Structure prediction request, 1652 residues.
Amino acid sequence: MTVSREVELEGHIIDSGMMGACFGIIMDLGGSFTVEAFDIGRHKDEESYARLLVEADDEAALQTIVHELHQNGANPADPKDVSLQPAPADQVVPEGFYSTTNHPTFVRYEGEWLDVEHMEMDCAVVVEDGPDGPRAYTKVLNAVEEGDRIVTGDTGIKVEPPSRPRDTGGAFGFMRGGVSSERPSETTIENIATAIRETKREGGTVLAVCGPAVIHTGAREDLARLVREGYVDMLSAGNGFAVHDIERDLYGTSLGMDTESLDHPRHGHKHHIYAISEVIREGSIAAAVEAGTVESGVMYECVVNDRPFVLAGSIRDDGPLPDTITDAVEAQNAIREQAHEADMVLMLSTLLHSVAVGNCLPSTTRVVCVDINPATVTQLLDRGSAQAVGMVTDVGTFVPMLADKLIEGAPGT
Amino acid sequence: MTVSREVELEGHIIDSGMMGACFGIIMDLGGSFTVEAFDIGRHKDEESYARLLVEADDEAALQTIVHELHQNGANPADPKDVSLQPAPADQVVPEGFYSTTNHPTFVRYEGEWLDVEHMEMDCAVVVEDGPDGPRAYTKVLNAVEEGDRIVTGDTGIKVEPPSRPRDTGGAFGFMRGGVSSERPSETTIENIATAIRETKREGGTVLAVCGPAVIHTGAREDLARLVREGYVDMLSAGNGFAVHDIERDLYGTSLGMDTESLDHPRHGHKHHIYAISEVIREGSIAAAVEAGTVESGVMYECVVNDRPFVLAGSIRDDGPLPDTITDAVEAQNAIREQAHEADMVLMLSTLLHSVAVGNCLPSTTRVVCVDINPATVTQLLDRGSAQAVGMVTDVGTFVPMLADKLIEGAPGT
Amino acid sequence: MTVSREVELEGHIIDSGMMGACFGIIMDLGGSFTVEAFDIGRHKDEESYARLLVEADDEAALQTIVHELHQNGANPADPKDVSLQPAPADQVVPEGFYSTTNHPTFVRYEGEWLDVEHMEMDCAVVVEDGPDGPRAYTKVLNAVEEGDRIVTGDTGIKVEPPSRPRDTGGAFGFMRGGVSSERPSETTIENIATAIRETKREGGTVLAVCGPAVIHTGAREDLARLVREGYVDMLSAGNGFAVHDIERDLYGTSLGMDTESLDHPRHGHKHHIYAISEVIREGSIAAAVEAGTVESGVMYECVVNDRPFVLAGSIRDDGPLPDTITDAVEAQNAIREQAHEADMVLMLSTLLHSVAVGNCLPSTTRVVCVDINPATVTQLLDRGSAQAVGMVTDVGTFVPMLADKLIEGAPGT
Amino acid sequence: MTVSREVELEGHIIDSGMMGACFGIIMDLGGSFTVEAFDIGRHKDEESYARLLVEADDEAALQTIVHELHQNGANPADPKDVSLQPAPADQVVPEGFYSTTNHPTFVRYEGEWLDVEHMEMDCAVVVEDGPDGPRAYTKVLNAVEEGDRIVTGDTGIKVEPPSRPRDTGGAFGFMRGGVSSERPSETTIENIATAIRETKREGGTVLAVCGPAVIHTGAREDLARLVREGYVDMLSAGNGFAVHDIERDLYGTSLGMDTESLDHPRHGHKHHIYAISEVIREGSIAAAVEAGTVESGVMYECVVNDRPFVLAGSIRDDGPLPDTITDAVEAQNAIREQAHEADMVLMLSTLLHSVAVGNCLPSTTRVVCVDINPATVTQLLDRGSAQAVGMVTDVGTFVPMLADKLIEGAPGT
Prediction:
């Protein structure tokens, strides 16, 4: 005895590979299928439609298949409402909870499709009734509260994986993923500059995620210019980034090395501790800027130009600075807010912070990832943003070239 | 007008390179020197002695030189007591505070040399009078309290950088540093096994610092054996390591992949969230072991064999588990305690946690660092333990081979 | 005015991604298409069939599209004979020559489909009439002779890209490509052992491509065992590999380091020059083995067990040995012969030689690529064998584990 | 019974570490020593002098020690003439031959010290009497001819390892070795530009060693400018570099990718074969330039500005071009000539060719090594040039920045 269910695929289901993926899933999981309807998009702009009858040996197998098809964009032909179960305790999910992808997602509740807010992967979906009607939104495990009505199973859920842009034209045309250390570097940087300019023109928000190598490699002044000129709207970094940025302002060194003469002044190894100590004395980075103690750099420009920043603590930090959020959950929540607000993210030489931000991004956000280590770039791009581009290069040459192209090379100025 | 001071060097000052380093420092910093006495160790076991008169143009330059000579093991010939200044506020160091190396250090207080306790780099030294007499110990910046009597300047301080073992014999003879991916792997693993055995025989404590790759690469069962058999006494890791270890116990997967069949069961991507949720429901890892929920693995063996573990949180964590210390400062303190207790440290495929542990280690602790990425191994060894060895290899083959050599290949059994 | 041509797709055209790829090519190149026939394989074992009418603005654009479709397995519905042009001079190809992929390829000549022999990428296809009828085969550029009848254009050519094995069962099921340093190492090695055993059982030939790191990491004795026991049938390496293997036999060192004690005997840096000098004195490696000068090692086992080897020279060689082929073209031809004969290739820690071998392989040959550097593994796998697997691990632990599993762990022996 | 010999050390023997190294060698090899005379250089510019009496158990042990001391710059106090033995056959060295370092070396022949010409490591030293008196020069193993009078043992040989420049001033002051991906990139590039300018001002010769990544990353036009403007005097590369450079001229692509639009034109994968075919048709690169077939690029500028180039073949080449030297020994000899003529070497993104050039360099040649892979940079710098600097960066941003600084930013213009 077999059980079956109808699922539908819509959109660029063939050239996006969606249809092939779905057939593969059914077969890999031991099911079979019949193509009941198939209306092929004959031209570039036409969408296709297919309806499959999926069969499996038992209900459990069928559910596994249908769950996987969901994750890949195939949705039940005859949708029912979503199933909801209350969370049994704080931070505990009900059996069979639906774990999100990072793609745009909809749940069917009382016959209506609700857009799930704050998409992010590995979350639970909570549905709640409010004064303005019902809403659905994601919650990470540690935010789940006893009694939250949590989506379980796969019924009544629609996922829409974005298709990769086929067209190579437009400012974001080059963002078709892939990583290589053997692409023309200047051309790629020019493309990234164009994409940032386009994002700003559309009123979008650019988030820079920065590792301390940005300071060590001498890119500090150019990143500060990008903040000042408004090409970077928000900053996400760790304690070390801010310490070395401020150390450079106070003592001319970064981790004890003079970034202009390349000398190591002999007391240099104390400078980062002094820098932290000075900021603690003032109370905060903003207070140190106001007091005139800190007079230049990336953090300085953030403060005087009112660009919000999040400094997340880690176990290898010295200090830390008073601005650093030492609790990982609290820091993650601050990062989450930034990530949800960003339209474009520049990840500059930091694996830890880039992973943290990337975990919170929906797949529709534009991401540029720059690192000298190809493994870092590959790992970050694997998280599947549809508009992501990786560049294996030196952040110490990348940021100056980018700043030149954005600030001096602005077309039409 | 010049100023001058006498400094002394003692020990294997020539073949350790100390004398050459000191001459270089004086000249680099614009000073000059006269060798007033020089008694050379003519044979292998004889120590040498040199007394230099160091001259500089002014007191500031001289202090800089003498400070640097200190860091490299040259000490004032006519020692005075250490200078002490009260900390002006919590977490604020007095001007000119002495920032520690990770070498054994002594301070002269009321005519006596005090051994500085808990050596660790980038710390302040606090001297306090107690009922059992005076003691000196390190404090990280965030532990400094207003009024702490903190060592400033360079007077009355002796540093003893350990000389690298010249002799290639003995269990630790191979620990002469250096990193290579082109050394004979099995022989190196055999040497590491011998060093662990020797450490245990001496009553020493072995700390394993573990990244999630230990689980992903299938080394979990062999690491669990090493814990069970008593070759690993303490564990330092992140939330992810414990989650994947427990996920493997509960669902047979690690980050969703079956580590035996290499399949990705289709619901696998939920497993790590479920694993966390289950442990939260029980209250802690120990409670989950006691309840019989968790029945195998590294964390299981730690619990049932009473091996203490520290799980430090980070901003990329899912969950986290209730055992994970989410506050970075608190986690660092827990790591610091482990580091001070350890006689030998195995760093297994984790940069973040290894750096955190390494920051707290004195230069006399034995360190073995294993990673597939040569840059990680190099970065960790640069922190200058005198008995450190790096191995660029696959932790998934390293741990099984090590366990075989320790448990099955034990000589004399 | 538009021009058009019919093309056909057959096989697992949807789940292999072929159909999606073809639709994408047509659209990317500015063409359009109508699906004239579409018969979908409804079940796992059924093949599908599609016939497309491809349209473009002019003949040039159409040819470009059709050429690309070819490369991806779509063939003209109404096949004509292949076009042939004589090569205008030695090593010069005619305008519009057809440059091969590494997939199985057929050309239509006088109404018959000829299987193109010695498939390899970036070659020309030569058709010649012989006493046994016509044959088609590849020629690299430097082998092209004036007057060779070379295939031009895209007419009359069929390419059959192998579909990736869907089924995870069977000895080669795990060979579904992909690379990771975070897969369970022992399980992967067990799978590779099974695949080698299966290849031998089928009467296949195993080629090992080896870099000097095999010797430096201490894997020499275990590789020698694999040669002796018949798991490795042919060897491809450079001069350095053989020199260090023989140096180890003569002096107990590899590049001057004792691979057992890890010492560097003080005259060690001369050993590799002496080793070469000794073999030159004897005349060849085989002569040195016969004379009893060389008594163990990989080269020794190759000689006494009659396993053919190719040693290719390079500009960084010392010596070289008399057996080393110093001319790059001649060496490439020797490698080409090995590559065409191999059924399974183990690439062990050498980028240069692995690329050289990989360039000559058809896409149907099984390839296992092992290197500690993920970039090397990725670069080698990108060359597109359908049955290729990459493993980021230490060759110094890999070879011993593989030898143990093959020789001691053979099931049923 | 012990045997002994006097050795002398002269120069900056303490701060260069030479004295420490020598003491270490004696002790490691089981010898002992007495310091018979020691005159310390009290100031920065004064040299030191030491005379040691080295003792060992037997003559063999003593010779081993003395040999090692040689390699590190300690020379017998009472020099005798060098020992010479005839080579027993072509390419065969006599027992006990002296294997060279890459440091300046002198041999004592008939009471006179001869400067050994063409210093290079791992060579034999040949002494011959000529019409202008005796001379000594290096020979690689394959150049040794039967009857050559070859230096054996360690008697009568002086080696002078260059001391590392202590002073940080001057154009080459920054060349104190070390590698880091975390140095300020722009400042380092500025320093390299200054060193090139200084080398040219001194009438020196700059050799660029280039990998194909120079073309792929879009640095071709800027490298061509450097050749045209006379900042690069000679070029060393492989077949692939020249092919992609010419492919870019003829078709606008590099390995099939348009380096400006980043598109892959659909016939692009044939371009490199066509490029080779076209040059073969013309007969050589120079002929193709003269015929107007090749009109731009690095090779073009080399031809029209008469900058000599060496293209060395390898087993992974397509073609190759008629200019490519396919025999490894012949190519090595051509590289050797370039290396001996160069005063400064830029190694740009090629491990194979950089190793080949580096093998032929004396330790006194200035070397700049640029690669995105830190392991490559480390491996190249380990070969011990005294004036070598490594930079982990992207050659696609490095070359344009360097060209800007040299050509546009020339001070005083």
The CA atoms of residues 402 and 408 of chain B lie 10 Å apart. The first strand of chain B starts at residue 3 and ends at 11.
